[in-house]
UniProtKB/TrEMBL annotation:
Residues 78-453 form the Circularly permuted ATP-grasp type domain. InterPro entries: ATP-dep_Glu-Cys_Ligase-2, CP_ATPgrasp_2, UCP005522. Pfam families: CP_ATPgrasp_2 (PF14403). It comes from the Bacteria. Residues 463-495 are annotated as: Disordered. This is Circularly permuted ATP-grasp type 2 domain-containing protein. Residues 485-495 have a biased composition (Polar residues).
Amino acid sequence: MLLLPYEMDGGFDEMFAPDGRPRASGERFVRRLEALAEGNLRERQKSAELNLQNMGITFNVYSHQAGTEKVWPFDLLPRIIDAEEWSMIAKGLEQRIRALNQFVDDIYNDQKIIKDKAVPESLIASSKTLRKQCVGLQPAQRVWCHITGVDLIRDADGQLYVLEDNMRCPSGVSYVLENRELMKRTFAHVFEGMSVEPIEEYPEQLLKTLLDCAPTGVSDPVAVLLTPGVHNSAYFEHSFLAQQMGIELVHGSDLIVKDGFVHMITTRGLRRVDVIYRRIDDDFLDPAHFRADSCLGVKHLMDVYRAGRVSLANAPGTGVADDKAVYAYVPDIIRYYFGEDPILPNVPTFLCDDDKQREHVLSHLDQLVVKPTNESGGYGILMGPHASANERAECAEAIQKNPRDWIAQPMLNLSTVPTLVGDELKPRHVDLRPFVLCGKDVYVMPGGLTRVALKKGSMIVNSSQGGGSKDTWVLRNGATAQPKPVSNTKESSSC
């Protein structure tokens, strides 16, 4: 099989250097691909897709005309990151998560960062994700965000940036694990011997993180995963993670507050619950304290939480830290708490709530990406260079009406990774969502979810917007050495 020529799009390609040669991190993989028999890669891709369908690995897309449940889109060619670069990324992620946890704890307690004017008081007070119900809370270990998904992108110049922080109910880690399993099933002889860091311990690490944050004095804590139900877009992940951790998957109706504790209703009676990994939004968590019409949460759960008799992961109120307007201040937040510069920089960001910055945004809408501050999944974004005049006019009106609700960023040319399109390899734009666990210790999963925009030229990688995913390989130290000879690779695709 001949990989070259591979026509890059002029930006930064993760697999190939500008001269067309494989980067050191991808050289061994490329040589193994070139040894495949004609048509073998396509066969293995089809095998992977069939496996996905047979295993029921799906996600839900709301209001999709062809139905809501979709088979998870997967591309067989991985994204490869060398050990040195990953070491820098992991350190940057740990720095960021520790700072944001301190920030959330500070916001709901002493507010030193506001008093010292490191962030504007108006910025925090106007955040739609600030929860007055959380004022004065001090969670176990003083950890608010136990599970974080941080979106990283690389620009055409090769620079990595943090695009956004996901600190409420980040999703996607189950697909990271399933992508790796698929890779081993369908590409075993190529994967073998590549010295890729394992990721299979994530469920064990997640359970450890949850139990480490159990209420004080509980010797044998019981954890559950609280799901809104089968119609949620991430329900597959909820059930998958509960099964992998060996804990119960529960709905709000399965839990009850009695005698000052949370209990799970079982066929043998009530069983006390100490830790809840909640996958429902703050608004629906407790009808006594948030939305009174919620049927998804547990009445008076917040009373038990405030009393320190149950732990919630992530804690309610963490959304204030992934407000996209607050995101613009994260470098300042890191400097404030740690006295050091951020290891991973932000994308330059314009706050529309600022008069001068708003004026710049409105006069350059054809050059910028405009985002609502509290949406997710790629919804509500204006890609200025690709938008029509009417779309830009509507966006300008929305900005002028509610400036605090919008930010803008330059249109970056995301890096690409070779992706199988028919029988050919084509460059497609990608981002990366690493997952970070924070409890008594910080654990950074090696790799993460590489999301790929499957449409030519598209920068929208979200699965809800037609994107797909790839396995992410973090190589061990020394794994970029000269490749060993590969044995005959013309065996069937069933390996």
